[in-house]
From TrEMBL:
The chain crosses the membrane at residues 6-24. Residues 40-49 have a biased composition (Pro residues). This is Uncharacterized protein. The lineage of its organism: Bacteria, Pseudomonadati, Pseudomonadota, Betaproteobacteria, Burkholderiales. Keywords: Membrane, Transmembrane, Transmembrane helix. It comes from the Bacteria. Residues 30-49 are annotated as: Disordered.
Amino acid sequence: MGLLLLEALGALLVLVLIVWWTMFSGRRGGERARQDEDSPPPPPPPPGA
């Protein structure tokens, strides 16, 4: 019984580490600003293109 609890605790620890890694392992300065947020949208293509 104790071995099952130890294994469950280990699996929970692995799950918490995976979630922590995916949440907080991004870029140090945050996400880069997207190029299209700073510039106006491109003009529509000409008709028939």
